[in-house]
User: Fold this.
Amino acid sequence: MDKTPMKHRDLLFIPQLRIVAVILMITILSWIALLLVIFKLDPYSSTKLALGFFFTSALLALSGTFSILLFLIKRWRSEDRIYVKSVMISLRQGFLLALCTCLCLGLLILGLLRIWNGFLLAILIILIEFYFSRQDDLK
Assistant:
């Protein structure tokens, strides 16, 4: 048997299919929860409860969906092996994209969303992602 020590790079390679499967299950549950909130809760009788559940389940559902889509795009575009770091980066980017979507939706519900507000919010989210990706590059 060959007992060569594993390199640091090989230690990071964990089957990302398990992580993506967990994200997929949470995303499916979040979409089911979002559909239940939409069809079962009356927003006129309990506004705070309905909006809280709506935005929480929408954030989780969109975050998981965007994360899986970003991961699949990275896997399709990359010829190297995908490491856990790539899955975590996709998860972070998906969460930021979902946060931007939910904030725009909240502004729309309040009647405050204008094109400039949406652009400023998107630019803010992009700057936050630049900050985090710069921190990843420094490590």
Q: What stands out?
A: Residues 14-138 form one domain.
